[in-house]
Structures are given as structure tokens and as C-alpha cells.
Amino acid sequence: MSVQVNRGFIVERYKYPDDFINKIICGDCLEVLKQIPDKSINLVLTDPPYGHNNNNGDLISRREVALGRGDYIPERDNRPIINDGVEANEIFERFIQETTRILTDDGVCCCCCSGGGGPNPTFAKWALIMDKYLSFKQMVIWDKGPMGMGWRYRRSYETILVASKKNKMAWYDNSKKIENIIRPGYKGIKKIIPSKDHHPTQKPVELMKHFIELHTKENDIVLDPFLGSGTTAVACIELNRRFIGIEISPEYCKMAEERIKNFDSGINQKRLGFI
Fold this sequence. Notes:
The protein has a single domain, classed as 3-Layer(aba) Sandwich (Rossmann fold). Helix content is 28%, strand content 20%. It has helices spanning 29-32, 59-66, 88-102, 122-133, 205-215, 231-238, 250-262, 267-271, and strands at residues 5-7, 23-26, 41-46, 103-114, 135-143, 157-164, 181-182, 221-224, 242-247.
């Protein structure tokens, strides 16, 4: 499969939709989003930087230390997350402003977020930002299962914040009712243990498929402006949705490109123009 990665984004060079649909764009999403027309995206599904200060790329080793598996070894970590410092909240608000413009009238925005505590929890700040520009709907809890040994209140979950363009929200589940807790094993969703072969905060494909199936139909357009290693794109290909992936890190763009190339879905690849 041949996957096009548009590197070195230049506003004057890339035109919508030909250079966007079913493409990975390597660039700053705050600049790229400006080129996407109003009311053209059905679902924004993404996992932005949480502001956990992983700019230096030591997240994997710090997790190993927390789990009691050894000492911190800097050489084990070479996958930083760009803009994962104090700037993350400002970036998030600017991204939500653009999201408000590009979503269809019944479009939905789903953002993965930490469940963390502390004096300024990220999920609380982000929920307020989303409700400032969109109509905040729900905080979905992804129960990741037992966390093993530890101390104090150890988080065994992450959150997915859901908002819609207006009060009307696209919904394609026949039951009309979905619990806001994703429990271990639901739809085959399993947490990923981070390693040097993964993005440090990579999400399961099945988790992304869950939200894509709820809020879109076949051939709809799903945007992930913080694509990482391409999980959302893989989920879209499997479900016959069109995607737009934006990622600022050339390394993760390459990782996403390789994942899509190696994804075996035959007809889906041909339909999306990859083979």
C-alpha cells in the first residue's frame, strides 16, 4: 500500500480536499486546520498532548520506575511528545476554536484526556474549554483495568471528553443508549503497554473504532489533528471512513505511514486509493 505523507506543510501548496483526504500531513495542526473549509468534518477524534511534560521523551522510563521495574535510563527514551508542556492548554483551546468552525452542524468532537487530579486537573480545564465553544455532552471513562502494585490513588482510567457542534449530535447506534464507562474487555478494547515500538501514549484501535461507529457513517470524514502513530487512521480504514491525519513530529508521521502500509484490509485499501 502506498500512503502519501505531505511533509513540510506550506499553506500555498496544499489544497483541500485533494491534499487532505486520506492523507497524513506532517505539520502544525493549528496552521493546517486553517485550510480546512467550514462545516466539512463529521468527527474530530484525537488524543492531544496532556501537558504532562513529556517534551524530553522520558515517559516510558519514568513509567518503568513507577512500576518498580528498574532505574531511570535516559537511553531507553527517544520518543518525546512535542508541545507536551505548559503550552498544551493554550494549544488545546486554539484547536477547539478551529474545530468549532470545521465541524458539520451535527458534528462531534471526542478528545482523549488524562483522568488526573491535582489543583488544576486537565480534564476539568479541557471540559470547560470545550463547553465555551461547543456543546459539552459527556465525560466517558475508559476503565483500563487493574494497575498492579503502587501507592496512594493510582489512576486506572483515562477520560474521553465528548462535545458536539450544536445541541444536535450525530448518533448511529440503534440502541440510543450507551453507558459512559468503557469497561475492561468491552468490544475487545485493551490497554497498550508502552514500549519503544509504540507512541508513548498510543491508544487501542478498538477504542477509536467505538467512537467512530457511534458518531459517523460510512464515507464520513474523521479528522485527527494529533495523529501520533496513526491509530485513528487505521480505525477509519477498517470502518470505511475517510480520514485526515495531522502530526507535527516527522518521526511519528513515519511510524503512522508504516502502520498503515502494514495494515491488511484489502478492499478498504483499494477503496481509499492506497493500492
